[in-house]
Amino acid sequence: MAKLFVILLMCVGLQVHAQDTSYVLHPFPTATSIDNQRVITSADSLLLPHKMLLTQRVFWGPNGLLRVLNVSPLTLEGRRKEVKIRQFMLLSHKVTGYATLAGFVAQGILELKLTKASGNEYNQLLNAQQTVTTITNIAYGTTALLSLTAPPKLIADQKVRSGVKLHKYLSIIHLTGFIATNILASQVAQHSEIRPYRQVAGFTTLAAFAPALIALKF
């Protein structure tokens, strides 16, 4: 379990912070490949920011999936549409974030009640908690994907607000807590002694998630 946890944390760190800003060139470029590279570099410098999240580059980069499939060509008009898509996705990110926060609060309340329950009441509360956990996990995953896969911002809008920076740092904490909570939850049935650790992980996630949402307002 510890090894899996470490691997997941490494993936989290890479996903939140990784920004691939390099291009892979052919070791022996031809005239055609040089011309193509100039076109890509020119388009990138005029329409796309130099730094993007790895997940953004996979979909929206100059050679991203949506460019290759010609779903969203890299043009000025296309970028204008992408900015509108970005605004909608980030607004949805906030909405699903509040839904996730409500789920975390409900999980915390049910967790506290479970510590005092027994018999049929315990089973009912446990089933309710599992249902809420499933819904919250889906909401949390949706919230993360909406942020990580949104189109990149405009080049002219590269200044990062202090609230957004704080939001990113808190995201590392609540994402780590979220993973830890789910890993520990899968072991509680066989090892009841780890329930307090799960509770700590859960409340840590909530304590970081709530201010992360508030930080977006600043």
Walk me through the topology.
Layout: H1 2-17, H2 31-47, H3 54-60, H4 65-68, H5 76-114, H6 119-148, H7 162-188, H8 195-215
Description:
Among the domains are: 73-152; 159-217. It is 74% helix and 0% strand. The chain has eight helices and no strands. Helix 7 packs antiparallel against helix 8. The longest helix has 39 residues, at 76-114. It is elongated.
Please provide a brief summary of the model.
This protein is mostly helical and 218 residues long. Helices cover 74% and strands 0% of the residues. Keywords: Signal.
Radius of gyration: 21 Å
Question: Which secondary-structure class do the elements indicate?
Answer: mainly alpha
Q: Which residues form runs of ≥5 with pLDDT under 50?
A: 1-41
Chain-averaged pLDDT = 78
From the spread of the alpha carbons, the general shape counts as elongated
> What letter string, H or E per element, gives the SSE order?
HHHHHHHH
Strand content: under 5%
Number of helices: 8
Which oligomeric form is depicted? single chain
Question: Portion of residues in helices?
Answer: over 70%
Distance from first to last alpha carbon: 38 Å
How many runs of DSSP E, i.e. beta strands?
0
Major pleated sheet: none
